[in-house]
Amino acid sequence: AEVEETLKRIQGHKGVIATMVINAEGIPIRTTLDNSATLQYAGLLHQLTMKARSTVRDIDPQNDLTFLRIRSKKHEIMIAPDKEYLLIVVQNPCE
Amino acid sequence: GHPEIFPLVFTTKTQEIFDCRVLEDVTEENCFKLIKKEDIIQDLKTRAAISDFHPVKKVVLEYPGEELLVVFDAKFQYGQNFYLVASEEAKENLLKPPESNKENKEEKEEVEEKEENGEATPEVHPYKPPVRKPWVSLGSEKEVEEESVKDAVAKIKYMISRVRRKFGAPITFTDRNASHVNDSYLECTSYQDKAFSIKKLEKNVGIQMVPKVREASTQTKWTYPKNAATQYFPRQLSNEEKEESLSSKQLKEFFTSVHLRMEVALQQNEIMNAFFDDWKALAEDESSSGGKPDVYLKAYHSFTDLLYLKDRTISCVCWHPTIYGIIAVSARGPLYYEEQANLSDKSLLQQSVILFWSFFDPIHPQLMLECPEDIYCFQFSPSDPNIIAGGCINGQVVLWDISQHEEKLQNAKPDDDAMKMTAVNTVNASFLNVLQYNWMSGGKRGEVRTQVIQDSSIESPLVRYCAVSSIQYSHKKPVTDIHWLPDYSEDSQTGATFESRPGVRTQLVTCSPDSSILFWDIPATKLLEQPSSEKVREEEIFDIPLDVPDTLNPLDLCWKPLIKINLVESDTNTEYSPVRISLRELHYHYKISEKVQSLNTEVPVKESPYTEMSTPSSKNLKTLQNISTSFFVGTEDGEIVYSDWKMEMDSDPAKPVSQKHTQKHTIHTETINTLQRSPFFKDIVLSIGGRNFALWKEGVTTGPILQSSCSAGRYTAGQWSLTRPGVFFIGRDDGIIDIWDLLKKTYEPSHFQNISESMITFISPCIASPKQHLAVSDYLGVLHVLEICQTLSKASKNEHANVLDYFEREVKYLK
């Protein structure tokens, strides 16, 4: 229930296009996009997050990745990684 | 035989003498009797001739031993009853071997007995190793001796030695002239020695063949199998697993830890765009507000055809929606049409056509569509650019299908070699034409080429129309406006309107000054030819059953409209004569993609509002909400009518449907020649007629939100710009195009440019390429294609918002 609420709140932000929750293996758990797009995002972003995290930790083993933001021409993809899950939000920042 | 055995006859006397009486002294078993030699000799002496030993006297005398063996021969083996063994050896043999034989015999008998008795216990003979026997030569030694090779001569050995200390000693060489000293070198030449000759003998040599064995090794590359795996299916969780993970504790913790970060990031984005490039934005603003002085329309191309457009004007110009560089032009007789028609000798030339021009070939039209009559207006179908609908001067509606020529249009290549001309053979095969051409290349090169035309085999294909409406059901006056509509249908029971094939436009609306608006549906054969994944909606429009899908003839003159709307003002019962019509969602977004749009791909219809229509349909389709049934009509008298109609529940097709309308405005003094909705704002309509134009907003009933003052020239054509929300082009009767920019000035055009000498009949912008084009047709039948400069084509960032603001302000002022 709290999970639902939080997700709804995030989804309700201005400009948010899609929200996804991915598990540690890259399998989507919860999504607001259609299936094929979700799978695509999940696979690609999961790998990217792993790479980013390993990069950060390689440079400094005490460090860890907390947030990843990819800004593109059309929108911004924000990824919040955690130990077991990944929260991905796609937002269109321009009004 | 046995040379030692001498058979003897022993008489009884002899037997008594020697005690070898038969059956007494000697028996069969005991047959041996040893008699002394002396006794025999004495017997011989005493009885000389009658002694039984007489025949063997010699033998006895020679007998070496002392005792002679006499054997009783019971069986007369040797012929007599006794025999004498003459030799010691034999005697021994006879005496002993029987004994040894006896022994062996006994053994053998034992063995035989045993064997005969039974083979119950085979006795294992103890292994006796082969006893070495003395070599018995059988003569092979000699052969070996003969064959073996032995050195005949002993080998001579030489041993050459050198003192140890001389090995490795330094060498000293001295020079010596070879020719000087006599004995510097010795020669030992060979010569043939006559005294000595060696005979070559044949020598036997023993050879043994042995296979030569050699060991070798090599190292090869060992490819070892390795497992590899590929994932071809994305991993997904089942719904239960998803539910499970959603409700898991870890997810809750995850969210509590993560959502704060995410919200911060989202808010950051909302507050400010961090990547906004102020510098760049400044530059853009500058350019739009400062105003570059040179706003211009650059002449790009100019098309004309002396054959088909002679003494004709262009009534309508349309760009091909998907293929870049193709523009279609319809021609009709000028206003003094009736006079023209009387000139019979020109009737052959005046075949009404719609010409397709390509940028790459300014001289030959790419395609020509045959028209039954002059076409007043035509449109490409937005969903299938191969279908073209046109309205004729006599009120008929014509359809063409150019799918066969689509390839050709797409492959229209640039043709620099402009020496050829086409010969006309459409109507009359023997009709030859020699014309002269003037091709002006838009001011770039300034050349004027006049060429003599030879007839060649290249001609533009003429496409016959595939459907034409029936005359009695069409308009009575020229069809002045024609538009495509999305495909709608209505469930007769519920009265709701559905879009049966979203994106597929198969319906037309036409209006004509005979005060009627007709809605048409594309004939079903056309629908069959279009590969649509959905079922063709069957309408009983045609009386003739369409069981011959490919022939087009049954459709000629049989096409009836679906709905007819009479524009009659209910109060005063005056009829309107609409010249232009504008329905709500008439601005189509053509999906310009690399491949030609086919009906298999659904074009997404972006606009949501729809008009309601009543057509019987038995299918249950998806309901549409928010249907608006209003439309704008511009009339011949210069009135703008904003009307609405309500559908009767059981109205039949082709029956006039009455409607009530809400407003009419008379702003313009002359016929409305343009009534167009803005491509950016659905509720803003531009109307042009006479000497002024007006902007209307749907829903604002008090009047136009902008009305221009009387201009110098009469306005004859106009179009909104497709890229800039506040810009539109208006053509005048003196060949000048006014460019109005609402953000700059609203009381006069921001720019005007002279395009041609005669009246401008039609303007059509095109955004198919990065350079935008504006097609302008004039009264003399020349089509000018102009390039729109960048300031006119590129919208600035806030233009949309600014124009919207402007409109809203205007609306407020009205109130």
UniProtKB/TrEMBL annotation, chain A:
It comes from the Eukaryota. InterPro entries: DYNLRB1/2 (IPR016561), Roadblock/LAMTOR2_dom (IPR004942). The keyword Transport applies. GO terms for biological process: microtubule-based movement. It is found in: Cytoplasm, Cytoskeleton. Keywords: Cytoplasm, Cytoskeleton, Dynein, Microtubule, Motor protein, Transport. Its main location: cytoplasm. Residues 3-91 form the Roadblock/LAMTOR2 domain. Belongs to the GAMAD family. Acts as one of several non-catalytic accessory components of the cytoplasmic dynein 1 complex that are thought to be involved in linking dynein to cargos and to adapter proteins that regulate dynein function. Cytoplasmic dynein 1 acts as a motor for the intracellular retrograde motility of vesicles and organelles along microtubules. This is DLRB2 protein. It comes from Smutsornis africanus. The lineage of its organism: Eukaryota, Metazoa, Chordata, Craniata, Vertebrata. The gene is Dynlrb2.
Automatic annotation (TrEMBL), chain B:
GO terms for molecular function: dynein heavy chain binding; dynein light chain binding. It comes from the Eukaryota. Residues 109-118 have a biased composition (Acidic residues). The keyword Repeat applies. One of its GO terms (biological process) is cilium movement involved in cell motility. PANTHER family: DYNEIN AXONEMAL INTERMEDIATE CHAIN 3, DYNEIN INTERMEDIATE CHAIN. This is WDR63 protein. The lineage of its organism: Eukaryota, Metazoa, Chordata, Craniata, Vertebrata.
